[in-house]
Amino acid sequence: DAGDYKCVASNDAGMVERSLTLTLQSPPVITIEPVETVIEAGATAMLNCQAHGEPPPTIKWSRQGHPVVSDERVTVLSNGSLRIVAAQKDDTSEYECVARNLMGSVLVRVPLTVQGGPSRAKGSIIGNINDIEFGIAFLNATVTDSLDSETRVIQAKITNVPRSLGPAMRKLVSILSPVYWTTAKEIGEAMNGFTLTDAVFKRETQVEFATGEILRMTHIARGLDSDGALVLDVVVSGHVLQLPSAADVNVKDYTEDYIQTGPGQLYAHSTRLFAVDGVSVPYTWHHTVTYHYIKGKMPFLVETLHAASITTEYNPLEETLAFKIHASIAKGDHSNQCPAGFGLDSAGPYCSDIDECETRDTCQHECRNTLGSYQCACPSGYRL
Protein backbone atom coordinates (compact mmCIF):
# COMPACT_ATOMS: atom_id res chain seq x y z
CA ASP A 1 0.00 0.00 0.00
CA ALA A 2 2.97 2.32 0.24
CA GLY A 3 3.20 5.00 -2.46
CA ASP A 4 2.10 8.47 -3.57
CA TYR A 5 -1.61 9.32 -3.14
CA LYS A 6 -3.72 12.26 -4.38
CA CYS A 7 -7.07 13.38 -2.96
CA VAL A 8 -9.23 15.41 -5.41
CA ALA A 9 -12.45 17.27 -4.41
CA SER A 10 -14.52 19.01 -7.07
CA ASN A 11 -17.93 20.62 -7.61
CA ASP A 12 -19.48 23.08 -10.06
CA ALA A 13 -17.50 25.91 -8.51
CA GLY A 14 -14.09 24.31 -8.94
CA MET A 15 -11.59 21.69 -7.77
CA VAL A 16 -9.00 21.30 -5.02
CA GLU A 17 -6.44 18.54 -4.54
CA ARG A 18 -3.84 17.45 -2.02
CA SER A 19 -0.94 14.96 -2.48
CA LEU A 20 0.67 12.75 0.12
CA THR A 21 3.13 9.90 0.40
CA LEU A 22 2.34 6.86 2.48
CA THR A 23 5.41 5.09 3.92
CA LEU A 24 5.09 1.81 5.74
CA GLN A 25 8.01 1.17 8.05
CA SER A 26 9.19 -2.42 8.58
CA PRO A 27 11.91 -4.04 10.66
CA PRO A 28 15.00 -5.43 8.88
CA VAL A 29 14.94 -8.83 7.24
CA ILE A 30 18.21 -10.42 6.13
CA THR A 31 17.79 -11.52 2.54
CA ILE A 32 21.33 -12.84 1.89
CA GLU A 33 22.92 -14.66 4.81
CA PRO A 34 26.66 -15.26 5.14
CA VAL A 35 27.67 -18.92 4.98
CA GLU A 36 30.28 -20.84 6.96
CA THR A 37 33.60 -20.31 5.21
CA VAL A 38 36.89 -22.22 5.29
CA ILE A 39 39.85 -20.71 3.43
CA GLU A 40 43.60 -21.07 3.27
CA ALA A 41 45.91 -18.59 4.97
CA GLY A 42 46.73 -15.72 2.61
CA ALA A 43 43.49 -16.01 0.64
CA THR A 44 40.59 -13.51 0.63
CA ALA A 45 37.47 -14.18 2.68
CA MET A 46 34.15 -12.68 1.57
CA LEU A 47 31.23 -12.87 4.00
CA ASN A 48 28.09 -11.65 2.23
CA CYS A 49 25.21 -10.09 4.13
CA GLN A 50 22.28 -8.04 2.74
CA ALA A 51 18.98 -6.93 4.30
CA HIS A 52 15.73 -5.22 3.40
CA GLY A 53 13.57 -2.96 5.57
CA GLU A 54 12.00 0.51 5.75
CA PRO A 55 13.81 2.71 6.28
CA PRO A 56 16.69 0.81 4.58
CA PRO A 57 18.73 -0.82 7.34
CA THR A 58 22.40 -0.22 8.00
CA ILE A 59 24.67 -3.26 8.26
CA LYS A 60 27.47 -3.54 10.78
CA TRP A 61 29.79 -6.44 11.58
CA SER A 62 31.07 -7.62 14.93
CA ARG A 63 33.35 -10.40 16.09
CA GLN A 64 32.25 -12.26 19.20
CA GLY A 65 30.37 -9.15 20.32
CA HIS A 66 33.10 -6.61 19.53
CA PRO A 67 32.74 -4.27 16.51
CA VAL A 68 34.90 -5.13 13.52
CA VAL A 69 37.35 -2.29 12.90
CA SER A 70 38.24 -1.64 9.26
CA ASP A 71 41.93 -1.51 8.34
CA GLU A 72 44.08 -2.26 5.31
CA ARG A 73 43.00 -5.93 5.41
CA VAL A 74 39.43 -5.76 6.73
CA THR A 75 36.72 -3.77 4.91
CA VAL A 76 32.92 -3.56 5.11
CA LEU A 77 31.81 -3.01 1.52
CA SER A 78 29.01 -0.66 0.43
CA ASN A 79 26.70 -3.67 -0.14
CA GLY A 80 27.21 -4.80 3.47
CA SER A 81 29.64 -7.65 2.79
CA LEU A 82 32.73 -8.15 4.96
CA ARG A 83 35.98 -8.63 3.06
CA ILE A 84 39.19 -9.90 4.69
CA VAL A 85 42.26 -10.01 2.44
CA ALA A 86 45.48 -11.91 3.21
CA ALA A 87 43.58 -13.91 5.83
CA GLN A 88 45.54 -15.05 8.88
CA LYS A 89 45.04 -17.85 11.39
CA ASP A 90 44.07 -15.19 13.96
CA ASP A 91 41.09 -14.24 11.78
CA THR A 92 39.46 -17.56 12.66
CA SER A 93 36.39 -16.68 14.71
CA GLU A 94 32.60 -16.36 14.72
CA TYR A 95 31.37 -13.16 13.07
CA GLU A 96 27.98 -11.44 13.45
CA CYS A 97 26.16 -9.45 10.77
CA VAL A 98 23.74 -6.95 12.37
CA ALA A 99 21.09 -5.15 10.27
CA ARG A 100 19.37 -2.26 12.08
CA ASN A 101 16.80 0.50 11.38
CA LEU A 102 14.25 2.53 13.41
CA MET A 103 11.93 -0.46 13.67
CA GLY A 104 14.47 -2.89 15.14
CA SER A 105 17.44 -5.10 14.37
CA VAL A 106 18.28 -8.64 13.30
CA LEU A 107 21.50 -10.65 13.71
CA VAL A 108 23.03 -13.69 12.02
CA ARG A 109 26.23 -15.48 13.04
CA VAL A 110 28.75 -17.23 10.79
CA PRO A 111 32.04 -19.03 11.53
CA LEU A 112 35.18 -18.28 9.51
CA THR A 113 38.08 -20.78 9.61
CA VAL A 114 41.50 -19.85 8.25
CA GLN A 115 43.83 -22.84 7.73
CA GLY A 116 47.39 -23.88 7.92
CA GLY A 117 49.71 -24.07 5.48
CA PRO A 118 51.76 -23.92 2.23
CA SER A 119 50.46 -25.66 -0.88
CA ARG A 120 53.94 -26.75 -2.06
CA ALA A 121 57.17 -27.98 -0.52
CA LYS A 122 60.65 -28.64 -1.82
CA GLY A 123 63.93 -29.70 -0.34
CA SER A 124 66.98 -31.93 -0.41
CA ILE A 125 67.80 -35.24 1.24
CA ILE A 126 71.40 -36.31 1.87
CA GLY A 127 73.12 -38.99 3.89
CA ASN A 128 73.50 -42.75 3.92
CA ILE A 129 71.24 -45.71 4.54
CA ASN A 130 72.63 -49.21 5.05
CA ASP A 131 76.10 -47.75 4.43
CA ILE A 132 75.07 -46.57 0.96
CA GLU A 133 75.64 -42.90 0.18
CA PHE A 134 73.02 -41.45 -2.13
CA GLY A 135 74.36 -38.00 -2.91
CA ILE A 136 71.57 -35.46 -2.99
CA ALA A 137 67.98 -36.54 -3.50
CA PHE A 138 65.40 -33.86 -4.23
CA LEU A 139 61.88 -33.73 -2.85
CA ASN A 140 58.94 -31.89 -4.41
CA ALA A 141 55.48 -32.01 -2.87
CA THR A 142 52.02 -30.55 -3.39
CA VAL A 143 49.38 -30.12 -0.70
CA THR A 144 45.65 -30.03 -1.46
CA ASP A 145 42.35 -30.55 0.36
CA SER A 146 40.77 -33.98 0.12
CA LEU A 147 37.45 -34.28 -1.68
CA ASP A 148 35.55 -34.39 1.62
CA SER A 149 37.75 -31.61 3.10
CA GLU A 150 38.41 -33.84 6.12
CA THR A 151 42.17 -34.11 5.48
CA ARG A 152 45.01 -32.53 3.54
CA VAL A 153 46.52 -34.67 0.81
CA ILE A 154 50.30 -34.58 0.48
CA GLN A 155 51.66 -35.93 -2.80
CA ALA A 156 55.42 -35.99 -3.20
CA LYS A 157 58.17 -37.34 -5.38
CA ILE A 158 61.78 -37.88 -4.36
CA THR A 159 64.24 -38.01 -7.24
CA ASN A 160 67.76 -39.46 -7.45
CA VAL A 161 67.03 -42.40 -5.13
CA PRO A 162 69.49 -45.26 -5.97
CA ARG A 163 67.95 -48.58 -6.93
CA SER A 164 69.77 -50.25 -4.06
CA LEU A 165 67.83 -48.03 -1.60
CA GLY A 166 64.49 -47.43 -3.31
CA PRO A 167 62.68 -50.55 -2.05
CA ALA A 168 63.89 -50.04 1.53
CA MET A 169 62.82 -46.38 1.57
CA ARG A 170 59.25 -47.14 0.57
CA LYS A 171 58.22 -47.71 4.19
CA LEU A 172 59.93 -44.50 5.34
CA VAL A 173 58.32 -42.00 3.02
CA SER A 174 55.76 -40.72 5.51
CA ILE A 175 58.41 -39.76 8.09
CA LEU A 176 61.27 -39.01 5.69
CA SER A 177 59.94 -35.47 5.44
CA PRO A 178 58.03 -33.33 7.98
CA VAL A 179 55.68 -31.99 5.28
CA TYR A 180 52.74 -34.05 6.56
CA TRP A 181 52.91 -32.55 10.07
CA THR A 182 53.59 -29.06 8.77
CA THR A 183 50.53 -29.00 6.50
CA ALA A 184 48.06 -31.41 8.16
CA LYS A 185 44.38 -30.43 8.13
CA GLU A 186 43.63 -28.59 11.36
CA ILE A 187 40.57 -29.91 13.17
CA GLY A 188 39.01 -27.49 15.63
CA GLU A 189 41.60 -25.34 17.40
CA ALA A 190 44.51 -27.74 16.83
CA MET A 191 47.64 -26.33 15.18
CA ASN A 192 49.80 -27.97 12.54
CA GLY A 193 53.51 -27.30 12.19
CA PHE A 194 53.06 -24.30 9.94
CA THR A 195 50.61 -22.49 12.20
CA LEU A 196 52.68 -23.23 15.30
CA THR A 197 56.17 -22.44 13.99
CA ASP A 198 55.72 -20.52 10.70
CA ALA A 199 57.55 -23.53 9.22
CA VAL A 200 60.84 -22.66 10.92
CA PHE A 201 61.93 -25.57 13.12
CA LYS A 202 64.38 -28.42 13.64
CA ARG A 203 63.22 -32.00 14.06
CA GLU A 204 65.40 -34.89 15.25
CA THR A 205 63.94 -38.32 14.52
CA GLN A 206 64.99 -41.84 15.47
CA VAL A 207 63.37 -44.88 13.88
CA GLU A 208 63.77 -48.30 15.49
CA PHE A 209 62.81 -51.55 13.78
CA ALA A 210 61.84 -54.71 15.62
CA THR A 211 64.73 -56.44 13.84
CA GLY A 212 67.28 -54.10 15.48
CA GLU A 213 68.02 -51.53 12.78
CA ILE A 214 68.14 -47.85 13.79
CA LEU A 215 67.85 -44.84 11.47
CA ARG A 216 68.36 -41.22 12.54
CA MET A 217 67.12 -38.19 10.66
CA THR A 218 67.49 -34.44 11.06
CA HIS A 219 64.92 -32.16 9.42
CA ILE A 220 65.54 -28.44 9.06
CA ALA A 221 62.53 -26.38 7.93
CA ARG A 222 63.49 -22.91 6.70
CA GLY A 223 60.10 -21.29 6.23
CA LEU A 224 58.59 -20.30 2.89
CA ASP A 225 60.40 -19.03 -0.19
CA SER A 226 59.26 -16.09 -2.33
CA ASP A 227 56.82 -18.39 -4.16
CA GLY A 228 55.19 -19.56 -0.94
CA ALA A 229 56.76 -23.04 -0.99
CA LEU A 230 57.99 -24.73 2.19
CA VAL A 231 61.78 -25.16 2.08
CA LEU A 232 63.44 -27.95 4.03
CA ASP A 233 66.58 -30.07 4.22
CA VAL A 234 66.84 -33.65 5.47
CA VAL A 235 69.93 -35.57 6.63
CA VAL A 236 69.62 -39.32 7.21
CA SER A 237 72.03 -41.84 8.64
CA GLY A 238 71.70 -45.43 9.78
CA HIS A 239 70.18 -48.73 8.80
CA VAL A 240 66.76 -50.03 7.80
CA LEU A 241 65.34 -53.47 7.19
CA GLN A 242 66.43 -54.44 3.68
CA LEU A 243 63.61 -55.48 1.36
CA PRO A 244 63.64 -57.21 -2.02
CA SER A 245 62.75 -54.86 -4.85
CA ALA A 246 59.76 -57.01 -5.84
CA ALA A 247 58.27 -57.03 -2.34
CA ASP A 248 54.77 -55.65 -1.90
CA VAL A 249 55.06 -52.92 0.77
CA ASN A 250 51.91 -51.58 2.43
CA VAL A 251 52.22 -48.81 5.04
CA LYS A 252 49.38 -48.96 7.56
CA ASP A 253 47.39 -45.99 8.86
CA TYR A 254 48.87 -44.57 12.04
CA THR A 255 48.64 -41.79 14.61
CA GLU A 256 51.30 -39.58 16.19
CA ASP A 257 51.02 -37.89 19.56
CA TYR A 258 52.66 -34.45 19.84
CA ILE A 259 53.38 -33.37 23.42
CA GLN A 260 54.34 -29.82 24.51
CA THR A 261 57.40 -30.45 26.69
CA GLY A 262 58.57 -26.85 27.13
CA PRO A 263 58.73 -23.42 25.49
CA GLY A 264 59.48 -24.05 21.83
CA GLN A 265 59.80 -27.80 22.43
CA LEU A 266 57.70 -30.78 21.35
CA TYR A 267 58.13 -34.53 21.73
CA ALA A 268 56.31 -36.92 19.43
CA HIS A 269 56.16 -40.69 19.18
CA SER A 270 54.36 -43.42 17.31
CA THR A 271 54.32 -47.16 16.79
CA ARG A 272 53.33 -48.43 13.40
CA LEU A 273 53.17 -51.40 11.11
CA PHE A 274 54.07 -51.94 7.52
CA ALA A 275 53.27 -55.11 5.65
CA VAL A 276 55.77 -56.91 3.42
CA ASP A 277 54.02 -59.39 1.14
CA GLY A 278 51.18 -59.50 3.66
CA VAL A 279 53.37 -60.02 6.74
CA SER A 280 53.16 -57.21 9.32
CA VAL A 281 56.43 -55.76 10.60
CA PRO A 282 56.34 -53.37 13.59
CA TYR A 283 58.58 -50.37 14.02
CA THR A 284 58.57 -47.36 16.29
CA TRP A 285 59.96 -43.87 16.23
CA HIS A 286 60.19 -40.76 18.31
CA HIS A 287 61.31 -37.25 17.58
CA THR A 288 61.89 -33.90 19.19
CA VAL A 289 60.92 -30.60 17.60
CA THR A 290 62.50 -27.28 18.56
CA TYR A 291 61.33 -23.87 17.36
CA HIS A 292 61.49 -20.26 18.54
CA TYR A 293 59.67 -20.05 21.86
CA ILE A 294 58.24 -16.63 20.95
CA LYS A 295 55.83 -18.46 18.61
CA GLY A 296 53.98 -19.73 21.65
CA LYS A 297 52.70 -23.25 22.25
CA MET A 298 50.06 -25.64 21.04
CA PRO A 299 46.51 -24.89 22.29
CA PHE A 300 46.52 -28.35 23.91
CA LEU A 301 49.12 -30.25 25.92
CA VAL A 302 48.71 -33.15 23.49
CA GLU A 303 47.69 -33.15 19.83
CA THR A 304 47.18 -36.25 17.71
CA LEU A 305 48.05 -36.43 14.03
CA HIS A 306 46.17 -38.97 11.90
CA ALA A 307 47.85 -40.34 8.77
CA ALA A 308 45.82 -42.50 6.41
CA SER A 309 45.55 -43.86 2.87
CA ILE A 310 49.32 -44.02 2.47
CA THR A 311 50.56 -45.22 -0.90
CA THR A 312 54.15 -45.57 -2.11
CA GLU A 313 55.76 -46.47 -5.39
CA TYR A 314 59.39 -46.74 -6.48
CA ASN A 315 60.31 -46.43 -10.16
CA PRO A 316 63.69 -48.08 -10.71
CA LEU A 317 64.05 -46.73 -14.24
CA GLU A 318 63.60 -43.11 -13.16
CA GLU A 319 65.07 -43.75 -9.69
CA THR A 320 62.14 -41.85 -8.17
CA LEU A 321 60.14 -42.58 -5.05
CA ALA A 322 56.55 -41.27 -5.03
CA PHE A 323 54.12 -41.26 -2.13
CA LYS A 324 50.73 -39.92 -1.11
CA ILE A 325 49.40 -39.45 2.41
CA HIS A 326 46.21 -38.00 3.95
CA ALA A 327 46.91 -36.10 7.17
CA SER A 328 44.88 -34.26 9.80
CA ILE A 329 45.65 -33.05 13.31
CA ALA A 330 43.31 -32.64 16.27
CA LYS A 331 43.45 -32.35 20.02
CA GLY A 332 44.57 -35.54 21.75
CA ASP A 333 42.14 -37.96 23.40
CA HIS A 334 43.38 -36.57 26.73
CA SER A 335 44.39 -33.20 25.37
CA ASN A 336 44.92 -31.47 28.70
CA GLN A 337 46.49 -34.37 30.59
CA CYS A 338 50.12 -35.41 30.36
CA PRO A 339 50.63 -38.97 29.06
CA ALA A 340 52.41 -41.71 30.98
CA GLY A 341 56.06 -40.87 31.57
CA PHE A 342 55.42 -37.14 31.82
CA GLY A 343 54.35 -34.87 34.66
CA LEU A 344 52.45 -31.59 34.48
CA ASP A 345 54.56 -28.46 34.85
CA SER A 346 52.04 -25.76 35.68
CA ALA A 347 54.49 -23.00 34.71
CA GLY A 348 53.73 -23.64 31.05
CA PRO A 349 51.65 -25.53 31.31
CA TYR A 350 53.95 -28.18 29.85
CA CYS A 351 54.51 -31.91 30.16
CA SER A 352 57.97 -32.43 31.62
CA ASP A 353 59.74 -35.79 31.51
CA ILE A 354 59.63 -37.97 34.62
CA ASP A 355 63.00 -39.52 35.50
CA GLU A 356 61.95 -43.07 36.30
CA CYS A 357 65.55 -43.91 37.19
CA GLU A 358 65.25 -41.86 40.39
CA THR A 359 63.22 -44.72 41.82
CA ARG A 360 65.61 -47.33 43.20
CA ASP A 361 63.60 -50.38 42.16
CA THR A 362 62.97 -49.32 38.55
CA CYS A 363 65.78 -51.57 37.28
CA GLN A 364 67.83 -54.21 39.07
CA HIS A 365 71.10 -52.97 37.60
CA GLU A 366 71.54 -50.01 35.24
CA CYS A 367 68.69 -47.61 34.41
CA ARG A 368 68.78 -45.17 31.51
CA ASN A 369 66.14 -42.45 31.43
CA THR A 370 64.58 -41.47 28.10
CA LEU A 371 61.91 -38.95 27.19
CA GLY A 372 58.64 -40.37 28.42
CA SER A 373 60.17 -43.72 29.29
CA TYR A 374 63.30 -45.54 30.45
CA GLN A 375 65.52 -48.50 29.58
CA CYS A 376 67.08 -51.12 31.82
CA ALA A 377 70.54 -52.47 31.06
CA CYS A 378 72.62 -55.36 32.33
CA PRO A 379 76.31 -55.59 33.21
CA SER A 380 78.78 -56.73 30.58
CA GLY A 381 78.41 -60.43 29.88
CA TYR A 382 74.69 -60.50 30.63
CA ARG A 383 71.60 -59.72 28.63
CA LEU A 384 68.20 -58.46 29.66
TrEMBL record:
GO CC terms in record: axon; plasma membrane
Keywords (A to Z) from UniProt: Calcium, Disulfide bond, EGF-like domain, Endocytosis, Extracellular matrix, Glycoprotein, Immunoglobulin domain, Membrane, Receptor, Repeat, Secreted, Signal, Transmembrane, Transmembrane helix
Protein name: Hemicentin-1
Domain Ig-like: residue ranges: 28-113
Domain EGF-like span(s) in chain numbering: 353-384
GO BP term, example: endocytosis
Subcellular location: Membrane; Secreted, Extracellular space, Extracellular matrix
SUPFAM superfamilies: GFP-like (SSF54511), Growth factor receptor domain (SSF57184), Immunoglobulin (SSF48726)
Classification via CDD domains: EGF_CA, nidG2
Membrane-topology annotation of the record: Single-pass type I membrane protein
Molecular function in Gene Ontology: calcium ion binding; cell-cell adhesion mediator activity
InterPro entries: EGF, EGF-like_Ca-bd_dom, EGF-type_Asp/Asn_hydroxyl_site, EGF_Ca-bd_CS, G2_nidogen/fibulin_G2F, GFP, Growth_fac_rcpt_cys_sf, Ig-like_dom
Domain of life of the source: Eukaryota
Nidogen G2 beta-barrel domain ranges (all copies): 117-339
Species in which this protein is naturally found: Chlamydotis macqueenii
Disulfide feature: C357-C367
